[in-house]
Specification:
The protein has a seven-stranded mixed sheet with strand order 12-13-14-11-10-16-17, with helices on both faces. The N and C termini lie far apart (about 80 Å). Helix 9 crosses helix 10. The protein has about 475 residues and is α/β, with parallel strands linked by helices.
């Protein structure tokens, strides 16, 4: 894929970029290595000051940054502004909490015959971040804020269709006061990742992306014995029981499925409804999906903009067509919109069976799969019948049902009576093919730290004769 800005609303190429040459790439890797040696010794207070200045720049220049995000990947301007506000909040969260999260942790010194015993968290070095286009700012900031506050330095290999957003982020971090080598954008193609990750100066990697990309990065890192954190795909269930507030559940369901134009790993994708609630929920859900406004992402009246790439829309079309050909019912949407741009309408597909691709594959667009089950146990079994395990939603007012769903859903997160999202104060990550490791909260900042164990022996008792003579 060329490194280029292509407007999803029109399909027109706006600008292209040359990939870094070998000499330029070497210079950036050397700069990261050199910067880390001094940056790691800066104080938490100094880093926090820079991080808060970065948050202020995000807030103060939100309109310019939001316009770039909308231009490059098609999210609505109002969604872009919300993403920027979330990034600023995340930056301030780590500015406020990093020192506390990474404070020395004492252990029982007497149990190991020591004067002191504790763990000290120390940064690892330059970390490679391989990031996707769907949340082009937040995905990076939720790595960069904790990594920089811990004393690491970052190397960003962003998706090739959001190069201006990637460069903008480096510019803002540098303008905030961070040393020039603390965070660098590398405009390179995917073929360069193996060489960068294999370089001795790069100590770890984090990736948010597809399952295939995660396997490739994990394989390279494994050969080099380097730490990785992977956040991969999701096919999140949205379980609705009869005790739920069905009207609210249906409204949230439409937002949960079509947020970010349906292009979110933690978007609800499979809607699993108890038979006793199915008819009413389906009516309300289809109404809510039909009511969403599809159109120009720069218009604040728009709810759903274009998909980010032409291939992405083709992939969605093929999955819906496969289901329809095998007997599924398309309750709304299901056909691309006429005109320029890569638009696809909010779509609900019912009657999904295991022989349909939609049953097993992630649909990365505003398409919902609707299932009807007989009871709670069938809902849990169907929810877990996926290779993924990122997020999940449970809608019930029954305490016993809630506990069964919280305990039984195989996922990194369970949101009860609310939409799955990421919050800086909560750990974020998945299980199964959705990856491993955690971002955000205290767990996220410790992922790229050395938890160094320190044992300090007890002072020797003074010699009795010497003590008496003194």
């Amino acid at each position: 894929m060329p490194i280029a800005t292509v407007d999803p609303a029109t399909g027109e190429t706006v600008t292209t970029f040359d990939a870094l040459g070998a000499e330029e790439l070497e210079q950036r890797l050397a700069r990261a290595d050199e910067t880390f040696r001094t940056y790691r010794r800066t104080s938490y207070a100094q880093r926090a000051g820079w991080m808060r200045a970065f948050a202020d720049l995000l807030d103060g220049e939100a309109d310019q940054t939001a316009a770039l995000m909308t231009l490059e990947m098609g999210k609505t301007l109002k969604a872009a502004r919300a993403e920027i506000a979330k990034c600023a909040a995340g930056a301030r969260y780590y500015a406020d909490n990093a020192e506390r999260f990474l404070a020395d942790v004492p252990y029982d010194a007497d149990a190991v015959g020591a004067e002191q015993a504790y763990t000290r968290y120390q940064p690892l070095g330059p970390v490679l971040a391989i990031m996707p286009w769907n949340f082009p700012l937040w995905q990076v900031v939720r790595f960069a804020a904790p990594a920089l506050m811990a004393g690491n330095v970052g190397l960003l290999k962003h998706a090739s269709n959001v190069p201006q957003t990637a460069l903008r982020l480096e510019e803002l971090i540098t303008r905030a006061g961070f040393p020039a080598g603390a965070f660098q954008t590398l405009l390179v193609g995917s073929s360069a990742i193996e060489g960068i990750l294999s370089d001795r100066r790069v100590v770890a990697a984090t990736l948010t992306g597809s399952e295939g990309a995660g396997r490739s990065v994990a394989e390279v890192a494994g050969r080099q014995l380097k730490k990785t954190v992977l956040e991969l795909g999701g096919s999140d269930p949205f379980v609705v029981m009869p005790s739920a507030d069905l009207e609210r559940a249906a409204q949230v369901a439409a937002t949960a499925r079509c947020q970010n134009n349906g292009q979110s790993c933690i978007a609800a994708k499979r809607f699993i409804v108890h038979r006793d609630a199915a008819e009413e929920f389906q009516r309300l859900f289809v109404e809510a999906m039909r009511a969403l406004v599809v159109g120009d992402p720069t218009d604040d009246a728009t709810d759903v903009g274009p998909l980010a790439t032409e291939q992405g829309r083709t992939d969605v079309e093929e999955l819906v067509a496969d289901a329809a050909a095998k007997g599924a019912d398309v309750l709304c949407g299901g056909t691309r919109l006429d005109g320029p741009g890569w638009y696809y309408p909010p779509t609900v597909v019912a009657g999904i069976t295991p022989d349909m691709r939609m049953h097993h594959e992630e649909v990365f667009g505003p398409v919902a799969s609707l299932y009807v089950v007989e009871d709670l146990e069938a809902a849990v079994a169907l929810a877990n019948d996926t290779p993924f395990g990122l997020g999940s939603n449970a809608w019930t007012e029954d305490p016993q049902e809630r506990e069964r769903l919280v305990e039984g859903l195989d996922a990194g997160q369970v949101f009860v009576n609310g939409m799955t999202t990421s919050y800086p104060p909560l750990p974020f990550g998945g299980v199964k093919a959705s990856g491993y490791g955690r971002e955000l909260a205290d767990l996220g900042i410790r992922e790229f730290c050395n938890a160094k164990t320190v044992w300090v022996g007890k002072a020797a008792a003074p010699d009795a004769g010497t003590a008496a003579s003194e």
